[in-house]
Amino acid sequence: MRDTYHEELDGISTSLVEMTNQVGSAMSRATTALLDADLTLAEMVISNDDAVDARYRDIEARAFDLLARQQPVASDLRVLVTSLRMVADLERMGDNAVHVAKIARRRYPMSAVPPTLRSTVLEMGNAAQEIVAKAGSVIAGRDIVMAAQLEKDDDVMDELHRQLFRQILDDSWSDGIEPAIDITLAGRYYERFADHAVSVARRVVYLVTGERVPALP
């Protein structure tokens, strides 16, 4: 019975890692859709969010079922409670990818990203991919060293976010109000995507050490 119980616990962790792959793929496709005005990819990200939400509900239901049936204590209880919080972060990461895809869809057949900002947005997309991949590794290996590295990766994303603002607010900006609004929103979605990944990593640190890391502002 206990072997089955621990297999179920491990299964939840595996599903969380798989969910990082889902939301990472979603943001990768959303970035391409945004840069290349690819309506097919944008629609794919938006429609595939149902699968992300379904995994969220499945993990949540399995965690609550174990809480009810097994009444876990100590470390096992911490695993389940932390998993419930991580899956909520991952679901929001999926939502951020959808928001980026919706910007791409709204501006189709034009790209929502002016040529002067393409390199910065591409860097943000790449940073998002690196961050979510590390978040999956942190969950899989309960790797608190890599969790600390994620904090530095998030600093990179924050700087790119600030760079977007500097470019939009610069006197040389000539692409108009609508692109400025689109890019402001997209930048915020990338920044929040990374913040949620860091929250996941911090929850793993708590899971391993029992010490809480201060929440992001």
Description:
The chain is mainly α and 217 residues long. The protein has one domain: Phosphate transport system protein phou homolog 2, domain 2 (Methane Monooxygenase Hydroxylase, Chain G, domain 1, Up-down Bundle). The chain is 85% helix and 0% strand. The protein contains six helices and no strands. The chain has helices at 2-36, 39-70, 74-107, 118-141, 144-169, 177-209. The longest helix is centred in the first third of the chain and has 35 residues, at 2-36. The radius of gyration is 19 Å and the shape is elongated.
Radius of gyration (CA) equals 19 Å
| Poorly predicted tracts of residues | none
Which structural class do the helices and strands define? mainly alpha
Mean pLDDT: 94
The helical percent reads: over 70%
**CATH architectural arrangement:** Up-down Bundle
Number of domains: 1
Distance between the termini: 42 Å
The CATH topology annotation reads as Methane Monooxygenase Hydroxylase, Chain G, domain 1
CATH top level label? Mainly Alpha
| Binned strand content | under 5%
Number of helices: 6
The ordered string of helix (H) and strand (E) elements is: HHHHHH
Overall geometric form: elongated
The count of DSSP E runs of length 2 or more, i.e. the number of strands, is 0
